[in-house]
Amino acid sequence: MTTASNPSVPLDGGPARARKPALSLFWRTFFLLALLLLGSVIAWTQTLLQMEFEPRALQTADQIASVVNLSRAAVMHSDAIARVSLFKTMKDQEHLTIRLREPKDVFEVFPATDLNRHVVAQLQSRLGADTIVASSVNQVQGLWVGFSIDKDRYWLQTERNRFDQPTRQTWTVWLLTAAVLSLAGAAGIARLINRPLKDLSQAASRVHEGDFEASTLDETVSTQEIRAVNIGFNRMTRKLAQIEQDRTVMLAGISHDLRTPLARLRLEAEMSVPDAQAREAMVGDIAQLDAIIGKFLDYARPGDMRLVPVSLNHMVETCLEPLRKRSDLDFKLALQDGLMVLADPVELQRALVNLLENAARYGKSDGTELARVDISARYSNDKVLLRLRDHGNGVPPEQLKHLTTPFFRGDSARSAANSTGLGLAIVEQTISRMGGAFDLSNANGGGLCANIVLRRATGSAVAA
């Protein structure tokens, strides 16, 4: 078997293609709310900073100017002997240092931020144009203000933090706190919005699986719109349950009302028609009618399934056993040992039989009466990949996606009178009900490939 022709089977049964990862409604709502709230927090923070800027600069300048003016007055009204004691007292008690300003002093002004420029401008307007505000003098850090008394020039040194308003670090802490609270609020709102939709999604999944009883939604919720949706969904679920029940009864009636007369006709034909050839033709026609009815019933069968661990190796052998005696069929197996799948044994056997019948009918290459079928299967993580390939003429690419459509039959080679066009549709429906995927493709070397993905099972196989 040519391994190069193995197609990649998407788990959803559709054509293989790259898909963008889906973002859940919760996370989409959370991200949008978080973006909105964080933008609002940042905008309000910037607004408050701008509103605080002018008062903060004026207050800082007033405090510094008051200290300088008081220090200047104290220096002016004290003699040389008392001035030494005054300077020592101011340094010990008020942490203020006053000393003469020397021409050789090297100083650095504060960084040119808007706030610093504004404070310096305010100080110069209060203390004089020759006022200097520095961050260090002779590499000594602090808040240094240079002022003059008559012809003498002085430095006043104090601690920078005495006049600092809330720093950028403080604003950062408040901003992060507001951001965390905003994100927590966004998560709560997103969860509140997403919960009814999540309940609806889970209920819809249960309906898809045929569990109508467990899919009832709460009709007493406080939100008017959600309550209306839940009421409508419950009505729809009850209607679907009734339709499913009616369909089951109808199928039982069809099976009885059609197959019972067919059985009588077959018995009567076998007993009353003397011509052996005519009798064989009539019996064949009746058997064909019975098979067609069986196909219709299989396709319309209710979706309840009992998924249990099943040995795929044993299932394939069971399906092949009645076909091995046929001279027009040749099988080649390549199955990994001990393959276990989660499936309904009866439904899985029915799907495999449909695929084998399809391969036997259409898998004959031109000029031969022998249909060769390759069957391979292996594990792939938590899945089991099963592949059946015939060596027939394949299918035109434009018809591939229609082969699983009910009642669709392709070219003349695939439109025999005894075909209902339901075999592959039944396979797709059955595999989908078991949580798997089914895909059809043309093999590189010719022929049609049926690719099945089933869920891997653990534990011992359950007898069919």
Automatic annotation (TrEMBL):
A Gene Ontology term for the protein's cellular component: plasma membrane
Listed CDD domains: HAMP, HisKA
Residue ranges annotated for the HAMP domain, each copy included: 191-245
TM region(s), chain numbering: 25-45, 171-193
Protein's cellular compartments: Cell inner membrane
Membrane topology: Multi-pass membrane protein
Stored InterPro entries: 2C_sensor_his_kinase, HAMP_dom, HATPase_C_sf, HATPase_dom, His_kinase_dom, HisK_dim/P_dom, HisK_dim/P_sf, RisS_PPD
Single GO molecular function: ATP binding
Catalysed reaction, written as an equation: ATP + protein L-histidine = ADP + protein N-phospho-L-histidine
Domain (Histidine kinase): residue spans on this chain: 253-458
Protein name: histidine kinase
